[in-house]
Hints:
Elements: H1 45-63, H2 65-73, E1 88-91, H3 100-106, E2 114-118, E3 125-130, E4 154-158, E5 171-174, E6 189-192, E7 198-200, E8 206-209, E9 218-223, E10 234-240, E11 261-263, E12 265-267
Parallel strand pairs: 1-11
Antiparallel strand pairs: 1-10, 2-3, 2-12, 3-4, 5-6, 6-7, 7-8, 9-10
Helix pairs in contact: 1-2
The site of FE2/S2 (inorganic) cluster (FES) has 13 residues, from loops.
Amino acid sequence: MNGECPPSCPFLVPSIPALDLPVGQLHRLAPVASPGKTDSGEVDETKRNVIKLLAIAGVVGAAGGGLVGGTLQYAQPPLVGAKSYPTVQLIDVDGAPLTATKVNQEYNVTTSSLLLFYYPLTNEPNFFLNLAPATTGGPGATNVPGGVGPTGSIVAYSAICQHLGCPAPAISYYPPGTCSKTFGTKNFYIHCSCHGSTYDVTDKAHNLTGPAIYPLPQVTLLWKDPADGGDDSLWAIGETGPEPVNGHFTTLAGGYQVPTTVQLFKESPIILCQFPSV
Ligand code: FES
């Protein structure tokens, strides 16, 4: 047995004359025909082969347009994103539907764990904050712009810094007194440990310090108020801000849309009380 396949070998691929291209002919270019000169008689095999291939491609393309079209559609990455802001119910860390009553029992302005959820895309994390004062009193904020719940203290902001895009927990919520730095009387804020940007959680996440110059996009929350027949549940229904979430051409593009419910999760904050001089 010499390893060669006999003519009856089932693995031999039958010859296709149209594809039997001569090899080693690239140097055999015919001279350019010019007036007064006769053709040398050499065959331009390269040109002939190109014409052959184009002819074959034409036949294949005509006969298998679907195949070609199908192949081309995967030649470029699929566009991902959401057509519009989805309406998404928020689920608590424990898996139960989140209600404003529960939020006020479990979370307040002093909560040090980061509460995060993804919306509207699975690569866009957001802070979930209840700015209501602790039951023991002290600082806090109610009826803030965009705030929902019985005292208008529940808000949500993008957890991706608008400077160079550091995500949580590099950008974190700092409860009252975490750092000695205050802005007026405000001693709780969102602060980014990457380069020191600070955002006002009580006023649409406006910039308290740079280098970021844009506020964090704010998630529009909906509270189904029991006084209006609602079930006290909390929903994410949109997002606003002068700029999209950092790293996205629009907040709705550049990732996959979240499902109809999203669950909050906790992370440990990174605390670094370093503020740029302003
Ligand atoms: S990325 Fe947050 S301050 Fe630079």
